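Entry 12.
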Amino acid sequence: MMRDGYVVAWQGREYDAAPDGDNVRIYRTDPADGFDEVRPGRYARVLTPEEYDELVYVRTTCTWRGAPFIVLAEADAWLRVEYTGGRAPIARQLGLEEFDFGVYQGWAPLNEVSDLSEQRI
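Predicted 3D structure (tokens):
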């Protein structure tokens, strides 16, 4: 599972999360006590800082064709990746598209990617 976003540890489990001022909103895909359905298959609960154990940002990183990347998404056997090497000529050599000024992204076949790891920030 590729993750890129906030995660909260609460009651011995990790949840996808979104900071909301001093509080944090946590999400799950099935109903549970204290969670409200925000749309079909998505349930949310707001926690105060006293209620949760840890709030961190989790990012999945990898290496593709010898260059460093952040993994943004996964679809079938492909990863949506963003180049973090900071060198535009290298990004162009890799065939990446300039998503925004200085931000290069592309799709990498999963079988060509190495060093997949989760970074907790």
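Annotation: Helices lie at 88-93. The radius of gyration is 17 Å.
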